[in-house]
UniProtKB/TrEMBL annotation:
Organism: Desulfosporosinus fructosivorans
Name assigned to this protein: ATPase P
InterPro entries in UniProt: HAD-like_sf (IPR036412), HAD_sf (IPR023214)
Superkingdom assignment: Bacteria
Matching SUPFAM superfamilies: HAD-like
């Protein structure tokens, strides 16, 4: 669990990390090497789930041996399917990270939504639904590995 008191806000008690794959953890279906060590580190305090359309058919291979649960989306409405996936958890415990238009409801429903700009850019809808926005996934993981960093951005 990641626990953090944010001045002017509630205390964060985060246990679940929901991640988009392409555009967030990967580019063109290939996971960034820097991500793997961070996922292993974060798995000690968070349950990690990856939601993906698996556009390139690579998610299983790219995540092999990593402490993550993968959900390949099946519906025609990935925006709703991603958001609905969160309903199996207490939303007060969820961090969601994504960049695409189909991530915006997921980011909004999570207790802490982080938008990633990255190499693909980011949907304006996703950015407006996020609690904070960073340039790349390594920056988002840095906030979670060193949660004191969240105070400066999220305090009111």
């Amino acid at each position: 669990m990641i626990q953090m008191k944010i001045p002017g806000r509630d205390t964060l008690n985060l246990e679940i990390l929901i991640l988009d794959f392409n555009g967030t953890l990967a580019l063109d279906g290939k996971m960034f090497e820097s991500v793997k060590d961070s996922l292993i580190c974060l798995s000690k305090s968070l349950q990690i789930h990856i939601l993906t359309s698996d556009t390139y058919g690579t998610v299983e291979r790219q995540c092999k041996g990593l402490p993550v649960q993968i959900k390949v989306l099946e519906s025609m409405d990935h925006t709703t399917e991603k958001a609905d996936y969160l309903s199996q958890f207490n939303t007060q415990e969820i961090i969601a990270i994504g960049n695409g238009a189909n991530d915006h409801l997921m980011l909004k429903r999570a207790h802490l939504g982080i938008g990633i700009i990255g190499f693909e850019g980011a949907s304006v809808q996703a950015l407006l639904s996020a609690d904070l926005v960073v340039n790349k996934i390594e920056d988002a993981f840095g906030l979670l590995i060193e949660p004191q960093r969240l105070k400066a951005t999220l305090r009111r």
